[in-house]
Amino acid sequence: MLAAFSLRPAISSVGPLLEEVRHGLGMSPTVAGALTSLPALCFALAGTATPRLARRLGPDVLIAAAMVVLAVGLALRPFAVGGQVGFLVFSAVALAGIGVGNVVMPAIGKRHFPDRVGRFTGLYSMSLTAGAALAAAISVPLATWLGASWRLSLGLWAVPAAAAALAGRRVARRGAPVLVEPVEPRSSARLLHSRTAWSLAVFFGLQAAGAYVVLGWMPQIMRDAGVPAGTAGALLALTPAVGIPFALLLPTFAARRPSQGGLAVSLAAVGLLGYGGLWLAPAAAPWAWALLLGISQASFPLALTMIGLRSRSTSGTVQLSTFAQGVGYLISIPCPVVVGALYQHTGGWGLPLAFMAALLIPQAVAGVLAGRAEPVSAGPRIQRL
User: Fold this and answer.
1) 350 DSSP 8-state letter
2) Is the pLDDT of residue 170 over 50?
3) In this predicted structure, which of 198-202, 245-249, 272-276, 283-287 has the lowest mean pLDDT?
């Protein structure tokens, strides 16, 4: 839970301060859009190395090492020489640690709690969402308290990552229960030919695209509509905060259902309402739009739950998680850049928001396909010795 808490402040702390970061580093809206796409790119690249590292180090050691990398990147990026280039480089370092953590976390659940995947995913998702919400809520007040320093505000998020690294070291020393698991082939050929795996990847990618657009751009949408900066940060904080109870309860509920497709469609429909409100009247009911988008982003814990349910073993979960998240994040990469470019060239948010709303339709279709009870790999269920 400490590690999960540290996986999103690197991203959600930037959104409320994006205008200050842009002015301080001389970023154009398009470059800022690239900054909001950087997480997806780093997650996709770092995730590809995770299965090999997990086999060599073990999931527990690997998550502790990922937290060390994350802490170093967060501590150095606001103060890096080279302006926006240095900021982007050390952001990539931090995001590489997050990328490894994203992939290996479902495997840790499968390893330590093989008969409680839904409950573990709920606790992990709740902690992750709480970290995102807190970082979004206090980034602006923290910068003000520190003397209008956005650099110190962003750099302090290295502290919880360092604490997670120390806790992870203790867990790695203690070890995990001995499990009897099916031997999974290391080739990804079975995933390339699996409709379930591809459906999971598309669903994961499209929900990630929506999440990073909201995290990166919603404060700017609100500020352009006349909402004060502090209120815009609070609205962004509400988006993940409202997802905390959903993140805790939804995975357990979803794990008990024979299919998760109906949940995927329902969450996409809620997202359509949220984007529609931002498009038509952003300042009329901003808290309502943030609430709806926060509920819609419960698609993330739903995706993690389906990854755990569609695999049989720890190694199989790592492989499926790597495939779904790697391909998914590659799918999501262009979306924040497209949103930034559309905003820059049109001078408004109508077309960017219409673009994001349209993506919810294929997301719902992929969720229906991924939600069918068709495991990617066959084999006996895990047993605890």
Assistant:
1) H
2) yes
3) 245-249
Instruction: Please count the other Cβ atoms lying within 10 Å of the Cβ belonging to residue 378.
Output: 7
Q: Whole-angstrom Cα distance, residue 47 to residue 333?
A: 14
Residue-wise burial string across 115-150, b where 16 or more C-beta atoms lie within 10 A, e elsewhere: eebbebbbbbbbbbbbbbbbbbbbbbebbeeeeebb
pLDDT for 199 equals 93
197 CB-near residues (< 8 Å, 6+ apart): 191, 310, 320, 323, 324, 376
CA distance 321 to 307: 6
The answer to whether the beta carbons of residues 295 and 243 sit under 8 Å apart is yes
Query: Tens digit of pLDDT for each residue in 260-270?
Result: 999 999 999 99
- pLDDT value at position 24? 82
| Residue 60 CA from chain centroid, whole number | 20
Extract the tokens encoding 7: 């996986």
Q: What is residue 15's DSSP assignment?
A: G
C-alpha span between 112 and 263 (Å, rounded): 27
Distance CA 148, CA 139 (A): 11
Q: Is residue 140 pLDDT above 60, yes or no?
A: yes
Residue 116 to residue 252: CA distance in whole angstroms? 9
Q: Does the pLDDT value for residue 257 go beyond 80?
A: yes
Q: Which pLDDT does position 136 carry in this prediction?
A: 78
d(CA 86, CA 107): 33
Query: What number of other Cβ atoms are within 10 A of residue 237's Cβ?
Result: 25
Computed from CA positions of residues 101, 106, 111, 116, in that sequence, does the dihedral angle turn out positive or negative? positive
